[in-house]
UniProtKB/TrEMBL annotation:
The lineage of its organism: Eukaryota, Fungi, Dikarya, Ascomycota, Pezizomycotina. Belongs to the CIA30 family. Keywords: Chaperone, Mitochondrion. This is Complex I intermediate-associated protein 30. It comes from the Eukaryota. One of its GO terms (biological process) is NADH dehydrogenase complex assembly. It comes from Penicillium cataractarum. GO terms for cellular component: mitochondrion.
């Protein structure tokens, strides 16, 4: 592929190519392709205002609705350890337009724009070596959903996962959740159409302990900064199309990720406000990341080696259950992986 003058001018064609070559060279130099990487792979860093500018917002106004959505860059506040970040905010309205063809409204979302091209074609994120999508956010407790679009056969397919936060896990039923539970029978029937096989765990109103990892481990939010890091397992995302869960389910094509975004479809009228600092792919919280994590999240910071909960090297679990101790038992998570490489 030979870049034309138009392509070369689009958002820095040669800059993107140089950055991708640099990233791939580092992977090859560090032989990261031969083992599970321990360093995070940053996808969207909203400390950079250009990352915010590189995203687009969507709302039901496109079909005549009345919901609004904005994504603004918010500068850092060193005094409170608040990093520069993106603010996703607006208002949800379920009012129907005069257009009789529109039967449901009340949604808003944002995602990154097309990443463009580099010397070898369209540019994708390759997160195949990673287990989790990590998001550092400050939530108002509403029912947000993380959306990932890949270069799949069906272009409109989106893999989704609920963005669970402390508000979901600690406080029981928030006013938002109480509103959800009091929805009309008509809306419950509509939900049955969206999920004919039942609501998948990753999209349920309440987080299943087996699939979610977050920093919400304490019983109180006192003394916290409001920021938290949530890890969502890539293998828990659910394939949907226009809001409907698709069957059969297919694995997320992690080697060709086109876009990542967050949407709000709880259809509860009123304002929303979600702050996003950074989105990245990871295999757990390593020592290189913990300083930033503790500085921003405070008491809600994830501990080092959070990936241990995935039992990457949990081959000794059954033996330990039977009371058998082995001298070859190894550490799990990032530390365990490192010890394996050093052998």
């Amino acid at each position: 592929m030979i870049p034309t003058r138009r392509l070369a001018a689009q958002g820095g064609f040669f800059k993107r190519s140089a950055e991708e070559f640099s990233r791939l060279s580092k992977i090859a130099w560090n032989t990261e392709a031969l083992h599970t990487p321990t360093k995070p792979y940053v996808l969207l860093d909203f400390e950079d205002a250009s990352s915010v500018e590189g995203c687009k917002t969507m709302a039901d106004r496109a079909v005549g609705g009345f919901s609004t959505a904005s994504l603004d860059f918010e500068p850092a506040e060193p005094a409170s350890n608040t990093p520069a970040h993106a603010r996703f905010h607006g208002s949800i309205s379920t009012k129907l337009p005069t257009n009789w063809r529109v039967e449901r409204t009340g949604y808003a979302a944002f995602r990154n724009r097309d990443r463009g091209f580099w010397l070898f074609g369209r540019l994708f994120w390759d997160v195949d070596p990673y287990a989790y999508l990590a998001l550092r956010i400050k939530s108002d407790g509403r029912r947000y959903t993380v959306n990932i679009q890949t270069d799949s056969i069906v272009e409109t397919d989106i893999h989704q996962h609920r963005l669970y936060t402390r508000h979901h896990r600690v406080h029981g039923q928030t006013p938002m959740q109480e509103a959800l539970r009091s929805r009309s029978a008509e809306e419950s029937g509509a939900e049955g159409e969206l999920y004919p096989q039942g609501i998948p765990d990753a999209l349920s109103d309440f987080p299943p302990e087996s699939t979610i990892i977050s920093s919400s481990s304490s019983a109180t939010t006192s003394g916290t900064t409001g920021w938290e890091t949530v890890l969502l397992p890539f293998n828990s995302f659910v394939r949907t199309n226009h809001g409907y869960v698709m069957e059969p389910q297919t694995c997320l094509l992690r080697s060709r990720v086109k876009s990542i975004g967050i949407g709000l479809t709880d259809r509860i009228e009123g304002p929303f406000d979600l702050r996003i600092h950074k989105i990245w792919a990871t295999n757990g919280m390593g020592e290189a990341d913990i300083e930033e994590e503790r500085r921003i999240c405070g008491a809600d910071a994830l501990p080092i080696d959070e990936g241990v909960r995935t039992a990457w090297t949990n081959k000794q679990a059954s033996k330990e259950e039977d009371g058998q101790k082995s001298s070859t038992t190894k550490e799990k998570g990032l530390k365990g992986l490192k010890s394996e490489w050093d052998e």
